[in-house]
Fold this sequence. Notes:
Layout: H1 16-20, H2 23-34, H3 37-53, H4 56-60, H5 65-89, H6 125-131, H7 136-147, H8 152-159, H9 163-180, H10 187-203, H11 206-212, E1 213-222, E2 234-235, H12 237-250, E3 255-261, E4 264-271, E5 274-284, E6 287-294, H13 301-306
Parallel strand pairs: 1-6
Antiparallel strand pairs: 1-2, 3-4, 4-5, 5-6
Helix pairs in contact: 2-3, 2-5, 3-5, 7-8, 7-9, 8-9, 10-11, 11-12
Amino acid sequence: MSTPSGPGHVRCEPxxxxxxxxxxxxxxxxxxxxxxLAEAEDAVQDAYARWYAMPxxxxxxxxxxxxxLTTVATRICLDLLGSARVRRERYVGTWVPEPLPDRTEWIxxxxxxxxxxxxxxxxxxxxxxxxxSMTPAERVVFILHDVFRYPFAEVAEIVGxxxxxxxxxxxxxxxxxxxARTPAVPATEQALLVREFKRAWEAKDIRALxxxxxxxxxxxxxxxxxxxxxxxxxxxxxxxxxxxxHIADKAPGxxxxxxxxxxxxxxxxxxxxxxxxxxxxDVTEGRIRRIWAVRNPEKLRPWTESGRG
Length: 309
């Protein structure tokens, strides 16, 4: 991570602008590693705090500040992943990764974290949910190598393992992704299905809802024990349709909005102009196969700030 300066040569410390320019990359990485924007922000901030806590001479001796920050942030995330597994075992209901809006749907200036998170297929809800099934080491190595394209030699240095061990971990992670992967569906096709789903729910048309849902569909809700939500996944298209109509009857004032959720077409439910649920969808063979409904208000901060109108 560092290279000593040669005789008579004093390395200049990069300016704050150059150092802060690494923030988007670090947030991109940390969010994929943790599945939580709040935790990603904290991890990145911790990495910066450690950078500025070093004596100036020590900072000047670091050849690549970006590589140093990446290594430190990744190791912080690896530690957090270990403790997160314990916390999520005690979580009320099912833990679902924190949903993100598209940057064009996030109100705020360029300093907003959403403007620093690149929304692509590697942050789709389906992808993040599979990442949750990996061990911390598998997840970190897989993300660094297969998503961010770091060579195994660099990955090994970052995580403190041999390149051979990292290859095995990445291969294991790849198998998990392949086992869960479904044929890719164009965003336009998913958007049409989500729109039909919205209309059917608003019309309380159970027949239409059942027709849009795969018979083997599952719906997972995340309330975190802070708001009402079903604690176990609802399985089967018919059961999901009936549950959705039950929700419609219990909350007649809800407004559904079509929004981009983690880079894919999804829905946002608002009550009195405040976002109360963000729903992500996975579509297979022309039907909705999976729904993730995030209701935990602690995970809806970007949406309560931006999800109006």
